[in-house]
Amino acid sequence: MYLAEWLQDVLNLFFPQSCACCGKKLCKSETILCVFCEYNLPQTNAHLFHDSPLAMLFWGRIRVSNVAALYIFQKGGRVQRLIHQFKYQGKKEIGEKAGRLFGQFLAQSETIRTADLIVPVPLHPKKKKKRGYNQSDYFAKGLSESLGIPWSDNVVQRLINSSSQTRRKSRYERWENVRDIFKVGNPELIRQKHVLLVDDVITTGSTMEACASALFSAGSAQISAVGMAHSH
């Protein structure tokens, strides 16, 4: 125990860790984020309300029991920097930490905490191979650890390598971009189950809607949806 701590101290001395948001050198008790950023990043608090702007994205589109996201994504902001490192720079630990933190908040939700299985929105195999990982898997893993709900990356398959949802598209164009691209490969895992569907960033909700539609068609009884961030 003491040897491990000593080795970590030596590593921190020669290779100091910095906050993924502000770049400030982390103290010994801090991981990934400094205390200031961890407690001051803008949060949506959408998990506390059934009629939040985030939940309203799905009204009249698909029946989702609860919708929530941890952070508010603003262009040029600290959350964007955090997400970028998580998605494109291989810092998977950011997603796990965010999942563990968000899971503590989601435990307050009477709906979400009753989920049977956490399912991350999948990447197409070609994109996953190029990136090396699916960022949503690590967010799901962190949520699972905190909520005590199992997760699986073996439920939904992405059939088509669609173009990026981050480019400028209207809501209809985003829906057209992801319609019918998901398939449930193991329906026995979600049949008559409450699924907690997770993704990194929720913008118009089109990707979540398409994935949830595939889950309902395969027999899921209830779906809640959460993201690491919500981009207005």
Note the topology:
Layout: H1 2-14, H2 35-40, H3 53-56, E1 67-73, H4 78-88, H5 92-106, E2 117-120, H6 125-131, H7 135-147, E3 156-158, H8 171-178, E4 182-184, E5 194-202, H9 206-217, E6 222-231
Helix pairs in contact: 4-5, 5-7, 8-9
* Beta strand count: 6
Estimate the mean pLDDT confidence: 88
Low-pLDDT residue spans: 10-15
Total DSSP helices:
9
SSE ordering: HHHEHHEHHEHEEHE
State the assembly state of the protein chains. single chain
How much is the radius of gyration in Å?
Answer: 18 Å
Tell me the major beta sheet: 4 strands, parallel
Indicate the overall shape: globular
Q: What proportion strand?
A: 15-25%
Q: Write out the strand line-up for the largest beta sheet, numbering strands in chain order.
A: 1-6-5-2
Q: Distance N terminus to C terminus? A: 45 Å
Structural class: alpha/beta
Helix content: 25-40%
Overview of the molecule:
The chain is an alpha/beta fold and 232 residues long. 38% of the residues lie in helices and 16% in strands. The chain contains 9 helices and 6 strands. It has helices spanning 2-14, 35-40, 53-56, 78-88, 92-106, 125-131, 135-147, 171-178, 206-217, and strands at residues 67-73, 117-120, 156-158, 182-184, 194-202, 222-231. The strands form 2 sheets. A 4-stranded parallel β-sheet has the order 1-6-5-2, sandwiched between helices. A two-stranded antiparallel ribbon has the order 3-4. Helix 5 (92-106) packs parallel to helix 7 (135-147). The longest helix has 15 residues, at 92-106. It is globular. The termini are far apart.
